[in-house]
Amino acid sequence: MGAPPSITDQLRADQLGPLADANQFHGPLVLPAANRGWLADALRGMLQIRAVEERIGEMVSTGAVRCPCHLAIGQEAVAVGVALQIRKGDRIFGAHRSHSHYLALGGDMHRLFAEVLGRRTGASRGMGGSMHLLDLEHGLLGTVPIVGATIPVAVGAGLAARFDGAGGVAVSFFGDGATEEGSFHEAMNLAAVLKAPVLFVCENNLFSSHLHIALRQPADSISRYAEAHRIPWLRVDGNDIVAIVEAARSLVEPMRDGGGPGFLEAVTYRWRGHVGPREDEDVGVQRKEDLASWKRRDPIGRLADALVAAGDLVSADVTRIRHEVRAEVAAASARAERDPYPAAESLLATVYGRPGRSHS
Amino acid sequence: MTSYGVAIREAFAYLLERYPNVFAIGQGLWSPWYVGNSMTDLDKQFGAARVIDTPVSELACTGAALGAALSGYRPIVVHPRVDFMLLAVDPIVNQAAKWSAMFGGQVSAPLTVRAIINRGGEQGAQHSQALHSWFAHVPGLRVVMPATPSDARDLLVASVLSPDPVLYIDDRWLYGLEEDLEPVRELALEREGPRLVRSGGDLTLVGASYSTLLCRDAASQLASRGVECDVIDLRVLNPLDTTIVADSVRRTGRLLVVDGDWSCCGLGGEIIASAAEAIDAGGWRSRPARLTLPNAPAPTSAPLERTYYLTVEDVVERALVMTGHFEVHE
Q1: ipTM associated with this complex
Q2: Distance from the first to the final alpha carbon of chain A
Q3: What pTM was computed for the model?
Q4: Do A170 and B55 touch (CB under 8 A)?
Q5: Which of the residues A289, A297, B75, B185 has an alpha carbon 20 to 30 A from that of B67?
Q6: Full DSSP string of B116-136
């Protein structure tokens, strides 16, 4: 197989082409020539997300976790890559599949386990579950499962950042399914008109629940909507953290200097079903044929292989990191399982706010 | 004397002047006619950056207002008609109203949604709705309906200063109502609720917004017929404190609720149910009643509109029946 067409060749195209081809991009990542010390940390970050989500999947299987959990296994590079462009004061919003965003931004692993277990020590004090995550310390202002709902909310946070004038940005993570909602299109137009510094990050994993994008949209690239709204956009292999970081940086930097919105389309694939730990490979057009190939396009394996090939790490380092992460995950999940549930009073005590407590 | 419409404008000016984190966003805010005289030239006075006219995107504008509210601002999103606000039900009901609870009370959403009831004038089914009962159903959302110029101003200020999402609904049919206003008072919205605005021992009349005006005018006419009414202006529909209604009905033994919305699962039924739960069967001198819109969308044709909307005469007539002054033969 020859080299895939460069991404710039596709910039005006509606179709993802090789980016959506399960048989492309299987080899080690192409690493930057210099200044790549951050990649080992990025590898650890992705391994952490995967290990946490594998553990959550096990806990769903055993019945320990009962709330709906939408796992991002296979999509870790998008969250970790974009998070590397986030700085204090930025405001980030996610959706139903946002464990990865929470963790990539620096969210505490134990509080995530506690939240999916419905415990008082959770990220949302046991009142949100997997689909409602909050981490004010790291700028995660909320994740919610109404598809497309937080996209306009992020535009408002971007408008607030523009008012603040301190170079902050807002980030909205969503999937390709959300781009079929009116809220997405309204939000894109509004952001463009208001020149709100919001980075739209579409994790295009080609599926919305069980339906492949070919059955939902006349073209498979979401960037065409950014083009229509005259928002600067970039489209990358979402399983290539180097490409994601470079693209996110080039979109975010002008936003911090007073620019308007930017749009990043990261083409990726979820290894598990829409919800829960099973792979659900028999659900949906093309999934059974493609899943094994997409696993060879693993964002973690390709980075690890590249780092080892370049001599930045030896394979024993990768093994050691995996073990360390697994040990952290085991300890955090076990601790969360011993934590208390919210008190009954929480039901009514949190419905309305207390005066003077509203400013985040 | 200050009119209800101008009083709303005074609230905006008060907030924009004193609170740099307040801004207004919505359709028609740079237009001289979208919102009557309630926001005239605010964009010129405070700048178009803080009084933002928008694309035709109710959902995105309301969602964006929520995002700004979560980021330290106090936005007021304006929907010149309730009907169009229905395109923004998700950010209001699913998002803002639940934001505090679903994140464990760590953050709240101090967003004010201002919606205007703008009916009559042959505008028809999609330019005339009230729908306050829908929204009053939702925990986490405060619902405010001012009936007087004073409340129109001070409850808007209180809504914006509240830590919670508030749906503030004003009514164009009240815009000409005038009152001498005291200086602005910064009220704590969670301490505001229904208020007894007239006292009488024969019958309790309950209204909200424009229907409070109907009740007050009806009570004046009824007094000349020897029927003395308690009139209660609900003011805040959610959370709804019905204590004052029950206290009144214990005295009068009679309850008539006037509501400019439909009956089924509505505000009138809620008020009657709350009184029924609070008062023993022997405490009633007549069956409680409600006056609401007919169970039909708003018509356009003027004669049908006259049939459709409630009038002071409707209230007076029903009150006289309930107090035994005359019988209705059906």
Answers
A1: 0.95
A2: 52
A3: 0.95
A4: no
A5: B185
A6: EE---TT--TTS----HHHHH
